[in-house]
Amino acid sequence: xxxxxxxxxxxxxxxxxxxxxxxxxxxxxxxxxxxxxxxxxxxxxxxxxxxxxxxxxxxxxxxxxxxxxxxxxxxxxxxxxxxxxxxxxxxxxxxxxxxxxxxxxxxxxxxxxxxxxxxxxxxxxxxxxxxxxxxxxxxxxxxxxxxxxxxxxxxxxxxxxxxxxxxxxxxxxxxxxxxxxxxxxxxxxxx
Length: 191
Known about the structure:
This protein is of the alpha+beta class. Helix content is 21%, strand content 26%.
């Protein structure tokens, strides 16, 4: 049985969103991408400082994660590490903005996922893992794709759209496991 239009695409399928919204008729629409890029660079400059910012922007290769790589849950005597593999209900702490920036490449991404300004308000906070993301639908094509790297959703971490012209879509924020650190069981409080 071939899937119907209703079962094939999710609620946020790009063509559906296009048909139920009005086009943006502002003349400066072409300049918006340039403006967002400059805003992002200004944010990086503020957080990293001038020296680290210019070192990051002048390097030709993407930056590697720092030695404070949280993608380990434990290590044994041989030095091998076990991936975090966060599961729903586990308590994690979001790393600081500086720690997260150390994992990003020149485009502000880690393994293709962008760290956005809306995410910085959660830095330093303890949140529970809501679920692991294994598959998503690409809205522009409706194609189901598998995630290449461990990605999770955290309870209560929703994009407020403040850095995206006040977008009110309230999307879940995607988090790479490298941006999170496990909270030891003895430090967990009932929440």
